[in-house]
C-alpha cells in the first residue's frame, strides 16, 4: 500500500493551513470515502477500503477518524468548508429557479448523484452521519438566506419573510421525489418548485403569523 501521504503523524483535521499536509490527507481520504460510497454504498464501506484508495495507512485512519462513521462525518465537514455561494441573478424568481436547478444538477444524473445520495442513505443508518448531514445542510441553507434578504430589499418579498423556510421550500419537493417516492427529477420540475415558492412568498405565506 502507498503510504506516501502519511509519512509522519499529522495534527487533527483542519488544524493546519490550507494546502498543507493535513489538508492533502483530508482531501485524499474524502475522495476515497466518496468513491466507496458511490461504488458500494455505506454498508460495504470499510476503513480498509479507504486506506487502499487514499494511500493513508489504516492505523492512521483509525487513530484520527476512529471509524467509518468518523470518516463520513469529516468528509461532510470538509464539504461544508467550501466557498460555495448561492446564485445572484438579480431577481428572487431567478435565484429560486437557479437553486432548484442546482439540486437537479447534483442529484438528477445517477452518476453525479451517486455519492451525495449515498451520504443521505448513510444518515439513516448512522447517527453520527445523520448529525453531520444535518450540520451540512443547516450551513447550506444558512448561506442561501441572502437570496431572500436581497429580495426583501428589492421589494420582491414582504418584510419578515422566513428566509430559511423559503430556501428549504424550493428543494423540498425535489428531495421528496428523490428519496421518498423515488421518481426522476428534471428542469421542468425545478421550475415548478421555484414558481410555487415564489407565489407563496408574494402571497405572504412565508411570513410567520
TrEMBL record:
Signal peptide: none annotated. PANTHER family: HTH-TYPE TRANSCRIPTIONAL REGULATOR RUTR, TETR-FAMILY TRANSCRIPTIONAL REGULATOR. PROSITE patterns: HTH_TETR_2. It holds the Pfam family TetR_N. Residues 14-24 have a biased composition (Low complexity). It comes from Streptomyces flavochromogenes. Keywords: DNA-binding, Transcription, Transcription regulation. This is TetR/AcrR family transcriptional regulator. Residues 23-83 form the HTH tetR-type domain. InterPro entries: Homeodomain-like_sf (IPR009057), HTH-type_TetR-like_transc_reg (IPR050109), HTH_TetR (IPR001647), Tet_transcr_reg_TetR-rel_C_sf (IPR036271), TetR_C (IPR011075). Residues 1-24 are annotated as: Disordered. Residues 46-65 bind DNA.
